Amino acid sequence: MSLHDTLTSEEQLAELDLDTLKQLVGLVEYDDREDPFPVTGWDAAVWVVGNATQTAHFFISAFGMELVAYAGPETGNRDHVAFVLKSGAVRFVIKGGVDPRSTLLDHHRKHGDGIVDIALEVPDVDKCIEHARSVGATVLEEPHDLTDEHGTVRVGAIATYGDTRHTLVDRSRYDGPYLPGYVARTSSFQRREGAPKRLFQALDHIVGNVELGKMDDWVEFYRKVMGFTNMAEFIGDDIATDYSALMSKVVANGNHRVKFPLNEPAVAKKKSQIDEYLEFYDGPGAQHLALATNDILATVDALRAEGVAFLDTPDSYYEDPELRARIGEVRVPVEELQKRGILVDRDEDGYLLQIFTKPLGDRPTVFFELIERHGSLGFGKGNFKALFEAIEREQERRGNF
Ligand SMILES: [Fe+2]
User: Fold this and answer.
1) In terms of residue numbers, what domain contains 170?
2) Distance 288 CA to ligand 1 centre (A)
């Protein structure tokens, strides 16, 4: 399949072209004829939260997303409400329980706010489910059609880490706003004058945190079940300091649109950030979603103005001569990055700019990354050590290390 045939309907609607996507998310050519489980791209990240009405508003007002569809009691869904939001090619579905007996409320009681479903667009749901079953995956939903006046969507679902699932969606015969059962809906929210049209255009990767010793099992799951391949980035000691240690490997689908870094905690003197996640999410789950932007400076300025909180980057990170030597020339002076706390990483293919928000909900679990790629297909592994060590140097100066 040529890349031209693989633009998703979402990307076409968002007026994204291939060159833009290659830069934004590192899209590559690949031949899907031998792929046992062809994946076109992301369909949606489905969230379960404690208050979908307000989370949707937060993503609309602070993150510049657009409300496009809704389901709830008024549309015949008495179990829960669901708000469908878009930003460029990114689709979020925000769900919250309405009926006190809703199973979504049980999910929320256990995990807090989080991602319940990483839905993927596939050209052939039945082929994927059949292959997944044949290699031992848990099929949660057999392939079936959902139909309304806008056409038919074929869906099926398999289980992945923790209570997370992958719904597989073929919407090639459907032109409704999301799925049957949803109605088109817009928000009355008025964007601030001068605000960027969009703060992010595409989803770059979703990171999964899995239990100690289970990372390789999940890498193998994505290889065997979904035909994903290991990306070059392979992290061992790169993300280890005395304080916080983790192991990470990255798998991607054929065209690299869908990338899943998988983390497991590693033994260190102190509790790692992965251990903390596993404790507060009460099991494995999606840790962060990386949102691709073509202007991370404007995006960060807009988000900060809306009160979005980011992880602090110490000044020593930018003043480190090693970092300056490592990153070389980037599109703006380092001072502009420092002002905003934006991190830089460079590899043999190019560089990337990135920044991480603080956790989005009440528990120290799921958060966002903003990423602007300039050729680099990596995930900023150079930054983890540099950032953590910079923090430790600061601690040492204060006599706290
Ligand atoms: Fe990331």
Assistant:
1) 3-184
2) 7
